[in-house]
Give the backbone structure.
Amino acid sequence: MHKPILYAALSIVSCCTVFLNAGEDDAAIAADDMIKNLLQRLETAVLAGDAEAYLANIDTTASEWATEQTNWAADLAEHTPEMFDLNLLPRVEVPAELNPSEHVAALRMTWQFPDGGERRVEFPARFTLDEHQNWHYAGEAWTSVASEDGQTIVLFLTDDLQEIAERITEMMPGIREHVDTGFQTHLEHPQVVKLYTDMGHLQQSIYLSYTDGLGGWNEPGEAIKIMASPRMGARRLRILLSHEYGHVATFTYHQDVAENLPWWVAEGVAELAAERYSGDRAREGTEAAVRAWAEAGALAAWEDMADFRETPSRLHGHVYLQGHHFVGYVSERFGRSARNAWVRRLASGDSLDEATLEALGVSFADLDGQWRASLSADE
């Protein structure tokens, strides 16, 4: 099922105009002026690192967007840019049925940190007017495709992504069933997936200071975000979606999972969730890499991969591969239910020692030693 959410996708171009009569044009100009004032308030809040002031100007009607922006703003206290500009570009053509309490405009966001170069993104943005006649920033002006059961909603910005969005609505029920069954859980609300075609745009949507390359992103309460292209193959799509939905499965375990679950466990679980779609060659590659690290004495210390923000970039590969291998070892040795009980206890705040002893009946030190010994044994 295809329907517009907010507005149809809009192209960002500098030469387009809106065809309005005189009265409508006056109203649009007035809206532009008020929205420019809104953008100035957002700029001031960001440059002050003031999350509360920033969020006061955000439309929080959509729950995923509200959570994403809360996390986005929370990063400002630690990473405050030295330059942050928001500018409306020349107007784009909008649907004739435009709601007078909503406004769409091409937005350019430019920012810079003291230790980095200038960064910039442009996208069609949506603004909404509340009952007190105050404008709020509502994020991208997405187009929506929903699955027949309404449990998957895919958002995109350009018409060339509609086909891939529709394919995702067909894939996700099977992926959700596979992951839900494997991790003995169930999501109680529709899953939103946002498609990005520009890496800078995806990075900015996480927070301004984010610079690592990535194929997908997901945090509790947020939409699944993936880098997409019209030429994306079905296999790659399934791997990305199942990995990110693997994170969603752990999010159902406890409300504080993001703070409690060691990063290597979170990514190990997500990689295990995607294993069905990544195939034998990927599993063999993981096995070979981890055995090679073990032989060379190059396995990473678990505590060095526990916190996403503190893990050095040189260990990111270990987070995924070593974490995947260890979680797979736990699953094969103790079974699905015990593995899930172990992850649940970690998600609820138990230490590695507490969770391992309670769920698996062995200390983590002993389990770690047994896992390492298995890497030197014959396959």
Notes: The chain has twelve helices and ten strands. The radius of gyration is 23 Å.
